[in-house]
Each structure stands twice: as structure tokens, then as C-alpha cells.
Amino acid sequence: MTVNTVLTPSMTSSNSMSSGYCSLDDESEEFTFFTAKTSFFQKAKHAAKSETKEQEERGTKELSEEDVQTRIQEYNAQVSENGMKLAADGSYTGFIKVHLRLSRPVTVPVLEAAGSEGVSRLTGSRRASEDKDDTDSGCAEKRTSFYLPSDCVKQLHISSLTTTKEVIQGLLKKFMVLDNPRKFALYRQTHRDGQDLFQKLPLSERPLLLRLIAGPDAERLSFVLKENETGEVEWHAFSVPELQNFLVILEKEETERVRAVEHKYCTYRQKLEQALKKHDP
User: Fold this and answer.
1) What is d(CA 187, CA 166) in angstroms, rounded to the nearest whole number?
2) How far is 237 from 250, CA to CA, in rounded Å?
3) What is the per-residue pLDDT across 37-74, written as a single tens digit (0 to 9) for each?
4) Mind listing the pLDDT tens digit for each residue in 99-133?
5) Is the dihedral of CA 163, 175, 222, 70 positive or negative?
6) Which among 31, 240, 26 has a CA at the least distance from the CA of 122?
7) Contact 37/128 with Cβ under 8 angstroms?
8) Ordered alpha helix ranges (H), 175-230
9) Cα–Cα distance between 160 and 84 in angstroms, integer?
10) CA angle, corner 182, sides to 181 and 183, nearest 5?
């Protein structure tokens, strides 16, 4: 499923993205959510650790003004639409596509208020779990866990000053995700020698600069939003509905595993008993 979004430059001080060029407008399209993967505690593929921590913090080397102009001309010559535009101050704007590949459910709000457009979009979908809080306005706010569509693609219009952190915050805001942004990470995906390689981007990295350097070819570079794998699960970062939902799924997995083991050894026992009967005089 591909969803195109144009991010406008109208930023205010109330936005979570305070620098650069990255904002989100409301859209009319419906989002489809679904639940029900039995297991989401799967081992994620770790990004290749070929660079040192110092190199990651430093980010991609800055381009000169001449290099930027040349690369933008070369980039625009390879695309028929959604090219990059150079501003008078030396910054530039363009589009990137982000693939959402999340294996765990996300938490979104369901406001039970008359005329709320979000209710019709969210309550019409299947939920994983639900919690309720009271808001100052007197409305009852429900927090519901969903699995986002597999490999959904979001197109963002950003500037050369927009950072990885701001891209993550913008995506979560667009999908009304309430989870802590630190639970997610943006990865660069490259295709080499028949393999897909993933590298976690530093929060200070600028994705549009990477897009300009790599060119428009998705084989050379694409962006993927995934869970921020730190080696251990940070349980304190999850909400109560999420933790409750995890317990339900774990209990279901445990029941299925126990049933499978019992069936396996029951079959062995039957075969052994049959073999013993054949050897009885």
C-alpha cells in the first residue's frame, strides 16, 4: 500500500519539529489498520556496524554549493516529477519515500466526540487492545493498539535541513501514533550483491542529503522505519494497553507451543507402543 503525502513549509513553534522543513497536513484518505500477527517478538535483522560511533554522530559530509547545484540538475534530469528545488539561501527541498515495516502494534487515540473525523477512521478498524482516559475537555479518550499495514509507503516533502529525528516525528504525527519516538528508528536500505543491507541513521542525519547523493534510484538507497532495536526490550517505554496486549499474545503463543509439543510426543509414544506390540511373542 502506497500513501503519498506532501509536507508543507508552514511550521509553527508548537510543532514537535522545530527546525528544517518538515510539516504534515491533514489528508482525506482512509487508513486501514489490522491486527493479529500471532508473534511480534521476532529477532530483527541488525544494521551492519561498519562505521564507528564517532562517524555516525558526525553524519554525512557536507556538499559545497557548486556540488549541490550540479547534483540537483543531475537528479532532476533522471526524474519526470517530484524533483528537487534549490532555494536562494542554499538549502533545497525534495521528496523521499519511507517504507513502514513495523512488527509490533502502535498506540493511537480514539476520541469519542461528536463530529470527530478520527473516530470513524479508527473505530471502524479491528483493535488489539484498548484503554480509556479522561481529558480536560470532558471527552473520553481511548488508546487503541493497531498493527499498521505491512510495508506501507509514505512520501514526504522535506528540506535539506530536515533531520532523521524530525522525519520520524512527522511520520508518527501523520498516523496519530502516541508512542515515544525513541521506540522507532529510520534505516537506510541499500541493495548490493543480491542482498538488502540496513544501516541505522543517526538522529542528526539529513535524509534528503543522502537522497541527493545517491540519486533517485531506489536500488541504491531507500528509507525504512522500523522498531529501534537496542538489543534489549525497553519495557518502560510501552503503555499499559500495549503491555496487556503483549501478555495476551504471549499466553496464546504459549498455549500453541504446549499443544504442539504434546502432539509431537503423543505421536512418538504411539509409534513406540506399535513397535513394542510387533516384538511381543
Assistant:
1) 14
2) 18
3) 333 444 444 444 444 444 444 556 788 999 999 999 99
4) 999 988 888 887 665 444 443 444 334 455 555 55
5) negative
6) 31
7) no
8) 207-214
9) 10
10) 90
